[in-house]
Amino acid sequence: MQRSSPNTGHALPHASWICANAGHERRSVTMPSVQQEAEWHRPPPGIPSPSQVAHEGATHTPSPTTLTEEAAPEVEPDEHKAEQASEATSARSRKSRGLPPRGLARPARQTDSNRYWCSFHLQQAYTQFAVVPAIIGKKGCNTRAIFEKTGAKIRVRGRGSGHMEAASGREAPAGLMVTVSSNSFEWDGFVEAVRLTGELLDRVQHKMYEMTDKHKHLGELCWQVTLHNGNTHRLAAGQLVAEDTGEPVKLQQGFGILGSNAREAAANPETGKSQWPASEQADVDVMATGLAR
Predict the structure, then answer these.
(1) pTM for the structure as a whole
(2) Which long-range contacts (CB under 8 A, 24 or more apart) does 246-254 make?
(3) Who contacts 272 (Cβ-Cβ below 8 Å, separation ≥6)?
(4) Burial class (CB in 10 A: 0-12, 13-18, 19+), 266
């Protein structure tokens, strides 16, 4: 049975009435299907069509995962282990050379103004009798032993020392001396190094006295001791004593006002300003000339 539209009188397409279940009427309506050849209405200018939006979004929009993977490529396990091993080797190498780890600033270099030093000024005439090798010892064993025990540097410098200054590449034009130097925070090691150096010079002097009586005419091997604080002393029996009284002295920690040229003669002998008195220098030159003949 077909029903007609009350307005037009035409039959509704694809509509049917089914009678069932004791005369009751059930209606089943099938809606018209969209024809495949129907065209979409063109969107207003400037607005893309739905199909165009879907196509461009699927092909040209990168995902966050893709960006992350491209920015941080994954490191292979073997390459990561090799990189860690290389860094560990570099750290051990820097530590063995006394260098700070990477990223840390190097400590400030100690200068003469914040270092302790003590210079033992020696009679220049003793250079005629191989006094420098006697002080240093075979292959530097004497001075190296003091350094290893105290951490202080021991250097024989000046004319006749054989020590070439780094700045000039020549011996310092000052008189012969043995200089003990140490960092300002190593006071105990510095005091011990001064004591051991005084004892070393006393042994060397007695050894030379035993070799020949001529050395006794030269007098004391060390004629003066100057310190970083400007104090001056003498060396007697391997100990520092006051110049006027001969009483043993105790080193004083700290820095005082230096004399006019005490620093230049002791800590910086390459300046060429010698502390040797003119009268004593003339006497030593005469003795050295006579002994050399």
Answers:
(1) 0.51
(2) 251/118, 251/190, 251/191, 251/194, 251/227, 253/187, 254/229
(3) 172, 173, 174
(4) buried
- Identify the pLDDT of residue 57: 52
- Cβ pair 33, 26 in contact under 8 A: no
pLDDT digits (tens, 9 = 90+) for 255-269: 654 433 444 444 444
Maximal CA-CA distance, the chain: 158
The pLDDT value recorded for residue 251 is 85
Task: Specify the pLDDT at position 255.
Answer: 62
CA distance 76 to 22: 79
pLDDT of residue 185: 84
Q: Which helix (H) or strand (E) holds 133?
A: helix 131-136
Kindly report the CA angle at 235 between 288 and 180, in degrees rounded to 5? 90
Cα–Cα distance, 133 to 163 (Å, whole number): 12
Structure tokens at 126: 């003793």
Give residue for tokens 């502390």.
Answer: 275
Can you read off the two tokens belonging to residue 115?
Answer: 């270092």
Report the top-level CATH class of 112-292: alpha beta
- The position carrying tokens 């003793």 is 126
70, exposed or middle or buried, with CB in 10 Å at 0-12, 13-18, 19+? exposed
Tokens of 155: 């250097």
Residue with tokens 């009435």: 17
The predicted pLDDT at position 148 comes to 95
CA 157 centroid distance within chain: 29
Domain-wise residue ranges, the chain: 112-292
- Which residue stretches of the chain have pLDDT < 70? 1-113, 214-215, 254-293
Percent helix, strand and coil across the chain, each to the nearest 5: 40, 15, 40
Residue 184's pLDDT is what? Answer: 80
Angle between helices 141-150 and 187-211 (to 10 degrees): 160
